[in-house]
Structure of Amine oxidase:
Amino acid sequence: VMSVDSFSDNQIDHDVIVVGAGLSGLSAARELLRLEPTLRVLVLEAKERVGGKTLSVSMKAARGNTLNADLGGTWITHSQPNILRLIEELGLKTLPQYSTGTKWVQIGTPKWRSCTGSALKNIRDFSLGETLNLWWSVRKMRKLAEKVDVTNPFSWNRADELNEMSLAQWIRQNVNGRSARDALEIAARATYGVEPSRVNMLYHLTLCKCTGTFANLFDVSGGGVQAMRVQGGTEQISKRLAEEIGKDKIILHRVVERFEVDESNGITRVHTHSTNAPYDKIIYTCSQVICAVPLNQCAKISFFPPLPYLKQRLFDSAMPGNLIKFLVTFETAFWREEGWSGEVISTGRTTSPSEVLPVICTYDYTSSSGIPAMIGFMSEEYSDMTKEDRCNAVVRDLMRVFGERAMVQFLDYEEKLWSKEPYIAGAPSVFMPCGTMDSWLVRREPFMTVHFAGAETASKWIGYMEGAVESSLRTVHEVFHQLGYYDKISYTLLKGSVYDSDYKQPLVTSKHYVERIPFWRRGVFFFTVLCLGILVYSKKYKLSYTARAMKPLEKAVVKFSTGMDWP
């Protein structure tokens, strides 16, 4: 990868500068050069490596082998065309997520219960009431998500109400039964890396809508997000993209401090410094910028002229998740020998009010060559412990489910605390707190010459690798539009962007009245009360059926017309 020392001048002209050498940024650079090889493209990356939130590590494994394992983005699914096409073009292979056998679930009670199929959808060992309650809760959430417009959530008349509500509040108000509540809360922790009390309900519904259904967020089959993995790890994708782009076009250890747009000529100055030497500053100049860093990291970059209010508030409000991912290798896949899938779902709660166990969920991570391993997510309460303490806690927790073999056959442990990763500061993605979704509307809008990519700016699969690739394609064609390469533009990829001919500015929230009780229900109630009143009146005075119906009406009309009481 190119060294900064290779440049003799601090002012270098480029057509496009891409900030961020993660999956989105590298995909954008590759697509720019594929469609127009004459473009002068430069990629700037603050870290010492490419890949962003994809990271593979080598672990000690069975039979003296090593295992390349994912500590970042891991899974893809069949309904993600862009990432699947990219994987195929790069010559990589996928393998299905192993899900055969019994799952172990600890929800609704401290005791472990077995189930088959999807751990949260086909629950045989649960009571009929628990199963129906969970099914109804997921259905209710799915029906709400279907009404959300991902591009403009505030076009829905319930958006204001849900924007002010947390996911935990909605669960408490709408879900009965401990088992169903636990299931939804576990899915939220694994999806966002934080407690559901911190997640905006409208944001959650938006994410559910763009991934298909809420059930997809925790399923390992069909359209579930854990359906497939990449053989050898997902970091290979970024490494191969970097090779195609050319390492002379990628500069590592360069932190972007400021975007400065000259309104008189449209030239953008990108102010940077080195991570190794903060006083080593270089200013790059270009015509267009693709900013492919997480939204929370955009808040650390200054803009001149200043950003619009909503855009700045978006960057300030977007909160990174605090997901801890771990991998454990074993001598044998003993869980498969027992007819278990390796999938565990747990609240981490015990009979002790102050105790929280580490494991949220686990999945089989055995390689295509049969090297046994497990991958899982850990509760954020363990963030401040040492790696050794977390390792011991995870192994003890696995022993609760799988018995002593989880300790006896243990070989190696690796983990990643993404909240402590420089220039990323959290995973799997950002989430929006309560009351901030109005700023979410402008996440894809460019600012002058700066275009925003990244998984959070996608229109589908927000926060996933598919979303990262999709957003990169959009920004590439935005740049072509600005540079005048109209013959290169695919307007299908610009659909919903500011360059779409049908684009309409998303409406910021308006405090309109939300009808709690439908008009027809109020009408039925009023008519019923009126009829009962007439019946009681007529019974008292023993009137005929005609008089019973007409007498009160006559009195009311005469009273209204003349002011006299009708006898």
Summary: Residues 1-10 have pLDDT under 50 and may be disordered. The first helix runs from residue 23 to 35.
